[in-house]
Design goal:
Catalyzes a salvage reaction resulting in the formation of AMP, that is energically less costly than de novo synthesis. The protein is an alpha/beta fold. It is built from 6 helices and 9 strands; from the N terminus they run H-E-E-H-H-E-H-E-E-E-E-H-E-H-E.
Length: 178
């Protein structure tokens, strides 16, 4: 993980959100900065394996990262959606959050057998959503060898959990203690 202090400076820190003691890292302020957003996508694109075939983004902020990366790389984008958003035949996976469970889904047939899929999102914290994304892509027949994030909160262990599943993880910015 590079320092990318110039990008980190563009991320707004909101204390005590969504609950006391949490420092929320708001990437929307980075995305508002045209040059910062461009540098973010360029730096992430430089990390992508050259044999990647598809970019998968997790709803919702992951779409912002995935679509820009897919465009720059000349690849398609797979959307991993929340329940009730996809009209066709779909598969899904449930995962645990801090205060309950959630689910993500994708259309059947949107991943080809053994297709190499890059998983991206804006931030990785505990890793539940990202692990669910890996599981979902694998259910669809694809393989995830790499995951990229703008921000990692390493103390929450999500990146380590992905690595334990054989996924190489990189992020541009790390914030300790969150």
């Amino acid at each position: 993980m590079n320092s990318n202090a110039d990008l980190a400076a563009l991320i707004r820190n909101i204390p005590d959100y969504p609950k006391p003691g949490i420092m929320f890292r708001d990437v929307s302020s980075l995305l508002l900065d045209a040059e910062g957003y461009r540098m973010t996508i360029d730096r992430l694109a430089a990390l992508v394996d050259p044999d990647t075939q598809l970019v998968a983004g997790i709803e919702a902020r992951g779409f912002i990262v995935a679509s820009a990366l897919a465009y720059v790389l000349g690849l398609g984008q797979l959307m991993l959606r929340k329940p009730g958003k996809l009209p066709g035949e779909k598969i899904g996976t449930d995962y645990t959050l801090e205060y309950g469970t959630d689910r993500i889904e994708m259309h059947v047939g949107h991943v080809q057998p053994d297709q190499k899929v890059l998983l991206v999102d804006d931030l990785i914290a505990t890793g539940g959503t990202a692990l669910a994304g890996v599981d979902l892509i694998q259910q669809g027949g694809g393989r995830v060898e790499q995951a990229l994030f703008i921000v990692d909160l390493p103390d929450l262990g999500g990146a380590a959990k992905l690595r334990a599943q054989g996924v190489r993880v990189a992020s541009l910015i790390g914030f300790d203690g969150d």
